[in-house]
Design a protein that fits this description.
alpha/beta; Elongation Factor Tu (Ef-tu), domain 3; Rossmann fold; seven-stranded antiparallel β-sheet; seven-stranded mixed β-sheet; 16 strands; globular
Length: about 260
């Protein structure tokens, strides 16, 4: 008898902490290998499933940052430390870590798009902090993820954090991330660029990068899609003939540029 591809595994909640009023990071016990950029289907029996990206995996702990947006995540948010989440995966293709360890890297993230690259940024900040840049934009100061981590990163490598517009009491950068692309190392021909975030943000960021002369093969993107099954059966994530859950969610731009809904 073939294994059930929809079978899930119960994993223990070791800890969790709120990032914003609707975003929470969970620490789960997970000893098996994963690749940053992959995702899991997190299941609540009798309620449904939700695709959740891996934000980090180290020392047998899997980190997931989950946004409370509906029935499934409502139930997840009501769970306590010591209880379990049901997961299946990991699915998809993640980031080629070795590739980014051998070249200068600029990461451009929008909002929750920071979560799937958090682990990669952390590793690169240890291996090659002098060649790493991170530009991240949020809607508002209250929407910022990983506030304490951002403070640590600011002391280790070039970090630019911006919010979409001015807010009372906020003294940091304001404006969309496209406003600050010129402050990145766009004149370095071997620099790699990783773009993660909402589709409209990724579209205009990549247009700015191409306008600045960045080679297509130096741009990597991670797609945020409704990957309902994770195994290429339901078709929710399909763009033309490409199943994002199978071939992605991480793509090189030469492939990604053809993925238009």
């Amino acid at each position: 008898m073939k294994n059930n591809p929809y079978a899930f595994e119960a994993v223990e909640i070791l800890n969790f902490y709120d990032e914003t009023t609707i975003d929470r990071t969970y620490e789960l016990k997970w000893e098996k290998p994963v690749t940053i950029g992959q995702f899991f289907e997190v299941s609540v029996p009798g309620v449904g499933e939700a695709p959740i990206s891996i934000s980090e995996h180290k020392n047998g702990i899997l980190y997931m940052t989950i946004r409370r947006v509906g029935r499934v995540t409502d139930v997840i948010f009501n769970k306590s430390v010591g209880q379990h989440l049901h997961v299946r995966g990991p699915y998809g293709n993640g980031f080629e870590t070795a590739r980014f360890e051998s070249a200068p890297v600029s990461v451009i993230a929008g909002g929750t798009g920071l979560a799937p690259v958090r682990g990669l940024v952390e590793r690169l900040s240890i291996i090659a902090p002098n060649s790493l840049e991170l530009l991240v934009g949020f809607k508002s100061p209250d929407d910022m993820l990983f506030k304490e981590t951002l403070k640590e990163w600011e002391n280790r490598f070039k970090l630019m954090v911006t919010v979409d517009q001015e807010f009372e009491g906020y003294t940091g950068r304001t404006g969309l991330v496209t406003k600050f692309i010129g402050e990145l190392g766009i004149n370095q021909p071997d620099r790699q660029f990783i773009v993660v975030g909402p589709p409209i943000m990724m579209k205009f960021v990549t247009l700015e990068l191409l306008k600045a002369g960045i080679k297509e093969e130096n741009i990597t993107m991670s797609f945020e899609r409704n990957m309902s099954c994770g195994i290429g059966k339901c078709g929710h994530c399909k763009i033309d003939e490409t199943y994002v859950c199978l071939e992605g969610p991480v793509f090189g731009y030469p492939k990604a540029k053809h993925l238009i809904d």
